[in-house]
């Protein structure tokens, strides 16, 4: 249930509604929009009398929310959520282009790649220091050493850093070094991890589980939001289907579905969806055209020798060509690329 306050409701009206909701055993979540305040009624209390709440001063409407996710829903927060990231914002009119290697492999590699993606017009740098690999014998990432190199790359280039966190115990160290905590597909329903990132105020990039429904993704986001962290970006990274031509199947439908259902920014990950670099450009363009708020792309200086995901990694020159295509597409869909590099440098 959400309580929509009228535009001229006073602070006292709002606190009286909050007190009434709490008195019957619910928690409240406030959404203070440009024009009005919306009060989310959260939790499991005694049965709510909609009509009685509707009679309180300043209340315009009491709306039942039929979805199991509440704080993530558009009803609760009609405006797009904007997520601040080192001087730019993700969401709204902005397109974010997050790029970098699957894994941080060495100090030289991440710094060289950071400069290359920045030069091409990237908004942020990605790189995994803790890698969730299918095989225990594959490269597992450099751990904290990798985080230090990422932080150094950020210091040198000014690009904010996105990195994956795999367990609650390393949330703090990831927060110390990185700007965005990525929750990987394999951990989308790791509730202890969702709880832990929900208690930080760090932006979170939450990837859709490889066999999860859109509603399950939104419920995972709800865990983070309900623990107090409102800075959540949703990420469509492809789902498992019977198709074998590509690594996963990019669910283009998820983009308009999520944009309508939720106020949270939606980032597309074409690299993990298709698994082959030659399809990354088309799917990136399709995702932006469908309303995504940005893309996260794997870029490697030498994909043939990458420790992980080389097959789907773009070389910097192909990445630069894609950024320029996205930049041309952006105004057609009412967007602009959020960039740290002066536009003049990459036309
Ligand atoms: C990654 O971003 O490198 C990654 C492991 O992604 P996913 O969790 O989507 O498989
Ligand atoms: Mn990867």
Protein described:
It is a single chain. By secondary structure, the protein is an alpha/beta fold. It has two domains: 2-63, Alpha-Beta Plaits (2-Layer Sandwich); 83-337, TIM Barrel. The chain contains eleven helices and 15 strands. An eight-stranded parallel β-barrel has the order 7-8-9-10-11-12-13-14, surrounded by seven helices. It has a four-stranded antiparallel sheet with strand order 2-3-1-4. Strands 5-6 form a two-stranded antiparallel sheet. Strand 8 (124-126), helix 4 (144-157) and strand 9 form a beta-alpha-beta unit. It is elongated, with a radius of gyration of 21 Å. It starts with a strand and ends in a 10-residue tail after the last strand. Residues 342-347 have low confidence and may be disordered. Bound molecules: phosphoenolpyruvate and manganese (II) ion. Residues 102, 272, 298, 308-309 line the site of manganese (II) ion.
Provide the fold topology.
Blueprint: E1 2-5, H1 11-23, E2 27-32, E3 37-42, H2 50-55, E4 59-63, E5 83-85, E6 88-90, E7 94-100, H3 107-120, E8 124-126, H4 144-157, E9 161-164, H5 171-177, E10 180-183, H6 191-198, E11 204-207, H7 214-226, E12 232-236, H8 254-261, E13 266-268, H9 270-274, H10 277-289, E14 294-298, H11 316-329, E15 336-337
Parallel strand pairs: 7-8, 7-14, 7-15, 8-9, 9-10, 10-11, 11-12, 12-13, 13-14
Antiparallel strand pairs: 1-3, 1-4, 2-3, 5-6
The structure holds phosphoenolpyruvate (PEP) and manganese (II) ion.
Residues 102, 272, 298, 308-309 line the site of manganese (II) ion.
